[in-house]
Amino acid sequence: MARGIHIKDDSSLFSRIERLDWFYIGLICMLASIGLICLYSAAHGSFYPWAIRHFIRFSLGFTVMIIIALIPVRIWFRLSWPAYAGGLLLLIAVEVMGHIGMGAQRWINLGFINLQPSEVMKVATIMVLARYYHMASPEYIKQWQSLIAPALIVAAPTILVLFQPDLGTALMLIMAAAGVVFIAGAPLWWFGLAIGTALAAMPVGWHFIHDYQKQRILTFLNPEADPLGAGYHIMQSKIALGSGGLSGKGFLEGTQSRLNFLPEKQTDFIFTLWVEEWGMLGGAALLLICAALLFIGIRIALQSKIAFSRYMALGLSINFSLYVFINIAMVMGLIPVVGVPLPLISYGGTAMLTSMIAFGLILSCQTSKSRHMNRL
Amino acid sequence: MNDYLASSGDNQKEFTRRAFLIGAAQGLGLLMLGGRLGWLQIAEGQRYQMMSDKNRIDVKMMPPSRGLIFDRSGNKLAENHKNYRVLITPEQAADPQQALLMLQELVGLSEREIEKALELVRKLAKFSSVEIKDQLSWEDLAKIEVHLPDLPGISIDVGEIRYYPLKESGAHIVGYVGAPTQEDIESNNIYTLPGFKVGKTGIENSQNKSLVGKVGFSHYEVNVQGREIQEIEHQQPLKGESTYLTIDEPLQRFTQERLSSEQSASAVIMDAYSGEIYAMASHPSFDPNLFVRGMSAETWENLLEMRGHPLINKTIAGQYPPASTFKMITGLAALKAGIINAQTHVHCSGSYDYNRQRFHCWKNSGHGSLDLDQALAQSCDTFFYKIATEVGIDRISQTARDFGLGEKFNFGLSGELSGLVPDKNWKMGHFGQSWRPGDTIVSSIGQGSFLATPLQLAVMTARMINGGMAVIPSILRASSAQSPQWQPLEFSRQHLALIKQGMDHVITHPKGTANKSAIPENRYQMGGKTGTAQVRRITASQRAQGVLNQNLPWEDRHHALFVGYAPLRKPRYVCSVVVEHGVGGSAAAAPIARDLMYKTQKIAPATRQITADKGA
């Protein structure tokens, strides 16, 4: 059955601009500024090499976000499948290139950016799932058959990502997708069953993961056992965090990061750098900004009259929160080390771009306040 | 066509509920992160702060300069010379091996030196410097200095190395420094400094604590590779305290020089009133600089095997029968006990029979009838044999102890031996035999079991001629200027004067045993006592054949001893001389004592006291 759809949107461009949630955008800018400050400090008080590029990327990303925000959500509704298909193709391309080139490769060099298709894929998967549940009736959603399509939608990129191999991203993809299924109204007991099965499958899964992944998990369980080996990073990260104290060591004064005791300080461990220098107060401020972003994300979803918008906005918001939780919990030693950046703060092109696209899409939902939604 | 609205009321409600659950989960998650942050930063912040500091701060120790050692008038006995070393810093050298080869062309490094440096270069971090060679000569230093621009990564650095300007003359007093032992390293972390030395012998050893000084600290901030980023705190090392000795450098040199005419000898020159040691020499000696700068295995073996124990300070660690120098003790004991007086005469026929045992006087023909004064001057054995049995060993030994025999003075040099003052208990304890009168007879002339060090003999002499004050020797100059008050011994001045008279006559009387060693200039005249210590018993056949002692193998010859004082009137200086296997006290030891006493009075070290050190 041809299922064309019209989401009627009576907003003019001007009214959209007027409607833009500038507070939300302000919070986004604040996060990016924190990233800028951290990267400036990570380079020992220099804009080079990271802060300046972070700023340029954010500026580009900001433009992209505003453009996306001003495009009616029905366009994004239509572009869901093409985006998904494109992402999948890129993932396959990476896989093929990885086989030709050397070892695991997760990105494609597009000249101006090293694009990680797996990041883009998370957004596209959420879009497609939102679209799918937009189309599905509440009754159908309660039937198990409704899970077949989402399972396939998630499985395709997940399997490709696992081949890279990138367990962290694969798990995040599944969790974000599960989030959409959850908010779409799937019966709660499904999730209970899923979590139970996952826990039961863990010992079996242990045999299938790579040695370095096993090592990470073991290290996570007891980082002090091997402070100079694999546990070194997490130990140093905890020292940096803890030594920050209430008010931190001061801007550019973070000794752990300045003296390179902190690993990956400009990317995955940037939160550590931030709280080492700005302390509990800085860390709390960052968490509050994230809380506000998440709160507004939910509000936008709740205020949206279109199912697609609700699912997409909340789904992307959940995705954002997963990044924040996993990254910060990781640097605090609460979960094993996985390569997950802190959105808008960590140095990295794809993460910045996809984050800004996601925020743009959420804003697009916010600006598209259609009264009617007709299905043909 | 299904006609349901995606935005139906039920669905909307369900979504709101689910969105609320999501929001709650997110809020909870953030709270948990915040809580964990608070736990790490507030509750455990202090602990992590310490760990962070431990991470970033490295402590570098800086060696203090070792304190100098001066003689009584400010001459240096131990000083620090600059030690120029050439280093290589791998990260500054494009090719360390090439740099080393270029250096080799300049100053001729051995293959081993190059290999050693390269091995360290491989082992250590790229930015840490490696010593290639130390103790560079001026010539080599200049060559490297000139070529430094062509030698990337090569640098010159200056440290300190101990130098002993007296060389052989001061070796036994000043001692030397050497590499610390494991025990030293555990006791004080200063010894973990590369090349830091510890005093091994002599004053270097006994005064090591104050000479060492205090280590300096530099607290550096280091990065994760250990490279120094910046200095946080700096604490200068504190130079070790200088030590001032009572030694008189010119007299010390002279004494050492004078002894070198013998194969093995030692001498002490001391102030009879202050107890200050002006010179203390043991021959043969060694150059302590060899121990600091390194010596060949051959040299070392030679030092170990050489006749006369060059490594041992015989003035404090050489124990000899005091022989006839002991006769004053026996005489004093008899005087004090009232057994003899100045008029008591004894007839010497050349031997003395006691309990069917014959004790020989050194003079076979006998001395005839003589009193204490003559007995001392002519060193008659029979006189003392005769009185000894009446005095008894207890009183003799007690007198010997009163005069410092058998005593360790712990005056600042390690390795001091106590000698031996035997008595009844000692013999019982050692041999399980009771003391016999014959033992007392032999002891009366300082033979038998009595042992004394040259230092003890000097102290004994000092106590006899200073009016019976229990002076104690010293080698470290006291900080206070006033001379110490000594314990008076319980001997009458009359008796002491009587003994001194006999000792005067040893030199001045024509029949005195050391009359030939009289000092020509009368105002510098000395008194004293000769002694000839048997090393081997003289067998009956030897005595019958009249075998001359100097014809025996060196090891079997008698030790020659002399204790002396000068000037004759109101003596100030005392000395003791022991010539190992020198055959006879009057022939071998007395002439040395004469020269030493004459020189001492010429130099007059008692007047050579300075308050400010000219060298420091």
Q: How would you spell out the order of helices and strands of chain A?
A: EHHHHEEHHHHHHHHHHHE
Number of helices of chain B: 23
Beta-strand segment tally of chain B = 19
Major sheet summary line of chain A: 2 strands, antiparallel
Q: What is the 3D form of chain A? A: globular
Secondary structure layout plus pairing:
The complex is a heterodimer of chains A (376) and B (616).
Chain A: E1 5-7, H1 13-19, H2 22-42, H3 51-70, H4 73-100, E2 108-109, E3 114-115, H5 117-135, H6 138-141, H7 148-163, H8 167-184, H9 188-206, H10 211-221, H11 232-244, H12 255-258, H13 270-303, H14 307-331, H15 349-367, E4 373-375
Antiparallel strand pairs in A: 1-4, 2-3
Chain B: H1 9-43, H2 45-56, E1 57-62, E2 69-70, E3 76-88, H3 96-107, H4 111-123, E4 130-133, H5 138-147, E5 154-163, H6 171-174, E6 177-178, H7 182-187, E7 198-199, H8 202-206, H9 208-212, E8 216-222, E9 228-235, E10 243-244, H10 249-259, E11 265-271, E12 277-283, H11 289-293, H12 297-305, H13 314-317, H14 327-336, E13 346-348, E14 351-354, E15 357-360, E16 368-370, H15 372-377, H16 381-391, H17 393-402, H18 424-431, H19 437-444, H20 454-465, H21 493-508, E17 527-533, H22 540-545, E18 559-566, E19 573-579, H23 585-603
Parallel strand pairs in B: 2-10
Antiparallel strand pairs in B: 1-8, 2-3, 3-4, 3-5, 6-7, 8-9, 11-12, 11-19, 13-16, 14-15, 17-18, 18-19
